[in-house]
Design brief:
Number of strands: 0
Helix content: over 70%
Strand content: under 5%
Order of helices and strands: HHHHHHHHH
Largest sheet: none
Number of domains: 1
Radius of gyration: 26 Å
Structural class: mainly alpha
Shape: elongated
């Protein structure tokens, strides 16, 4: 009995692997964008939770004195000594726990989101590192600041040198956070040709 063309085609097609198209740059960028949105939302939530909610509520345990983390202009040994006197061991323990949890998660997730933002929008390697640098420095300063503040509050008499270090880290942290936000904006809004985005030359010629 003669076989139809369809049967012959199925016979020869049996066992032949179906080629899978490799992921395109557009698909990879879309996946990266989804991760970026999730990380950015998590960073925004942690910023609100850490700075606007919990650190603000900590003033209830310190006779209204602001936590060192929120003093953008820095502080001195006298302020730390007054703060330490106003806080009992439980209050200092709560602040230390906050530093180890939300105070650690926020800079790490923020850094991940901003590094990914630059990675997705900037093609030139030198520009990537330039825009990454404030984010990396912010993360280091923020994590170091947590330890420095806990250290000076644990001292019976705050050492001026340790307080000065913590204060410098606090000021640097806020400055680097602002620079990181500016770097993220630059990664998105700089001209495509300057960012080295693929297709920028084609867009310029067709325009």
């Amino acid at each position: 009995m003669a076989k139809t063309r369809a049967q012959i085609a199925r016979k020869h097609a049996t066992g032949t692997p179906v080629p899978v198209a490799p992921p395109t740059d557009g698909r990879r960028k879309n996946n990266g964008s989804l991760v970026l949105v999730a990380a950015a939302v998590a960073s925004l939530f942690l910023f609100w939770y850490l700075h606007l909610l919990t650190l603000g509520q900590m003033t209830q345990l310190s006779d209204g004195l602001t936590m060192p983390d929120m003093l953008v202009g820095g502080y001195d040994a006298g302020y730390v000594e007054r703060l330490r006197g106003a806080m009992d061991d439980d209050a200092r323990g709560q602040l230390s726990y906050l530093h180890r949890t939300a105070g650690t998660l926020f800079p790490l997730i923020f850094a991940f989101a901003w590094l990914l933002l630059v990675q997705l929008n900037v093609g030139r390697r030198w520009l990537r590192w330039l825009l990454w640098s404030p984010v990396i420095l912010f993360t280091v300063a923020d994590l170091w600041e947590n330890v420095a503040i806990d250290t000076v509050l644990a001292q019976a008499v705050p050492e001026p040198g340790a307080v000065a270090l913590a204060s410098v880290l606090t000021v640097s942290r806020w400055i680097l956070l602002a620079l990181s936000l500016m770097a993220g904006a630059a990664a998105v809004f700089l001209p495509r040709r300057l960012r080295g985005v693929p297709g920028a030359d084609t867009t310029a010629r067709t325009g």
